[in-house]
Structures are given as C-alpha cells and as structure tokens.
Design a protein that fits this description.
The protein is mostly beta strands and 251 residues long. Helix content is 6%, strand content 33%. It folds into two domains: 9-116 and 236-245, Trypsin-like serine proteases (Thrombin, subunit H, Beta Barrel), CATH 2.40.10; 129-233, Thrombin, subunit H (Beta Barrel), CATH 2.40.10. It is built from two helices and twelve strands; from the N terminus they run ββββββββαββββα. It binds arginine.
Length: 251
Amino acid sequence: MKSLSQWSVIAWVEIQMLDPDKLTFEHHCGGAVIAERLVLSAAHCFDKQPLQLEHIRLVVGEHRLKMQDKHENRFLAEKVVPHPDFRKSGPHSNDIALIVVSRSGHGVQFNSHVRPICLPDATDSAGRWCAVSGWGFQAEGTESFAPVLRAASVPVLDLATCRKSQVLGGRQQPILDSMICAGVLSGGVDACRGDSGGPLACPAGARWQLAGLVSWGAGCARRQRPGVYTRVASYVRWVLDTAASLGHNID
Ligand code: ARG
C-alpha cells in the first residue's frame, strides 16, 4: 500500500497462519469484521489443504504488525467456509470466505477501536473513491510486510474500463461481473501481496460499506493495472444464508 492516511474504518482483521517450520504465527492475509463472530476474507487465503483451524489466528484492533497494541485482541477460528464455487483459475472466481470466530469469551467486543463494517447494498460503486487497507507489501518486489496498517484511497473503475485490452481485458483472467476493479490508471497506488482478503471500504452516507475484498492483481501499482477485488454485493445472499445456517445473524 502506498499512501498513508487515517481512516475511520476499524473492522480490520489480521489473519495469521502458523509457520510449521518456525512454529510462529506469521502474517497471512487481511479480513473484515462484519458481526461479533463473523469475519469475511478471501477464499484463496485458505486454499492450502488440509486446512488446520488451529493454525489460524485472527487479530482485531491491531495497528502495528509486530507489536502488541493496546486494543489488540486475538481469536481462534471456529470455522472457515470458503465459497463452494471458489476457483483459482478458469476463471479465478468467487474469492470469498466466511470465518466464524471461536466462542472463547464473547466474540469480538466492539469499542472505539473495533467495529463491524456494513455489507454493501446493490448500488454500483463505480466512480466512488474507496479505502483499501492492509499490512501487505509496500511495493511489488519488497519482500516484507508493512510494519503498521496502511490505507490508500482508490477510485472504483467501471467494468468496461477495466475490461479494455490496454487495462485488464483479454488476459489470462477475465474480469467477471462479480469483481470490482479499483485503482488509478497512472499507477502508484494499489494493494499488494499480503493485503488479500482485506477490505475495500466505500463511504455510504455516514457509514462504511464493505464493497470489496482484495483478491488479485497484475503486479502491484503498475500503470493500467488496477487491483481486482471480490464484489461483496454479489455475495450478500451467500453470506447471509451461510451465516444463518451456522446460527449467526447479521444486523
Ligand atoms: N493475492 C494477493 C495476496 O495474496 C493480493 C494481490 C492484490 N494485488 C494487487 N495488485 N491489488 O495478498
């Protein structure tokens, strides 16, 4: 993530995964809190099989990646439900996963540092400036995660622009209607590796809506290569139904 600024979106989750060699939990992906015990992230963050739930740790209220922050809280995952039709290729699709936070204590406590983000309504976000955030690489090729949470403002592009051949059209991965492209075409600002699953949050009145989840890109912050996000609005039904089937309701 390039430019840094302050945002009042505070639904961030850092997803850590146990490194089996080092036996330490390492930064893996981002996510967003949508209810006391529910987090949304990208399905591709959980595609290593077999998925061991005890190897996943969810950190909320975090700011500095390697330090214990005052409002930081850690949780285990009770369940991870990747979208049943998630595909890595042919084409890359349905890159969304619902995570149930384990019952230890009361689930995620909301306070001035942790609050859920709203699911989006069906309004098209094209043309809006939204915030992408995470601890991912600060530039393509830098092999280290950002020490503090970074956020950048990016405009949502309309799909026709994104599908132009000089942008992301006619390539290996098609841009589906269930994706959002966001970024400046002159380059320089984007999500990058390690930001996956994190929120693309759009202001909607006095609230923030979770318009997208960081999914993929062609390099990072390159000219004419906007970032590609899972369009959460295409999955609201799936999220609500899956949550309800697990006994969770989202207000
Ligand atoms: N798949 C990447 C990850 O694992 C996210 C890539 C997003 N890239 C981009 N240029 N927007 O973290």
